[in-house]
Amino acid sequence: RRFGVSRATVARYDLSGKMVWCRAFNLGTFSNVIQTSTKDGFIAIGETNSVTDLAKYTPSTTSQNVDWLSYNPTAAAPTDIFDRCGGYPNPVQRHMNVVKIDNDGNVVWNYLYGIEAYDAPNDGLIAATTRSIGTDLVEGPWGNLRCVGSATDLADNGVKKVFVVDLDMQTGYVNSMNLFGQAGTDSEAKAIALSDQNNTYAVTGYMGYTGATRSRAFASLLSPAPAFNNPAVLNPFWTVYADDFDSRIKTSDHAASWDVD
Question: Which residues contact 232 (CB under 8 A, 6 or more apart)?
Fold first, then answer.
């Protein structure tokens, strides 16, 4: 709580339960962390309203030498940042934050993600009026990460939709991203898992539906095909619902326990 508010934190323990290291990152929270299959580090997902990399903050840091957090980085545009936020009356909203760290807790990459495309003259407006969060992630079969959560859909009056982002695991650069959900109602993915056969992703969470007074649990299947510049791959094959579950039911958090053939 160095900045007076909570910071997303990752701690590593040995098998005896003794802490090896503990690192604080950006303002906000992490909801999940995985170890890479190559055992070269960890990747955490959550949400933050930081626009600079607080993991690299020191008391001597000034506005001239901060490390800004890139938004939706790609190989063609790796350094788009929210550096014009001061002129907007709304505070910076939280955005999906994915951080890769090495085995010693040092940052490899640390980025923000949202469904709205970057627009340099209006980056402060995007930062202040859109929101996205990350809830879960899984390593894919193509050197990729498939991340899920939710994001505001400005084309649908700002309701939350299921947000799916496919990233290059080594660089954190965006391969593709997409939204899905029912029009006019809030939805959010809570968990994602890849089947043992690498032939499909299972995504679970809650999803509203038109005319209903509550949300319902859902499960969707997504293709494991490479998603580079192909957001259609991130649309579900099909979605099923559990109408007898109340909204935001925790049972839907357990996609990892499913055996999907």
Answer: 178
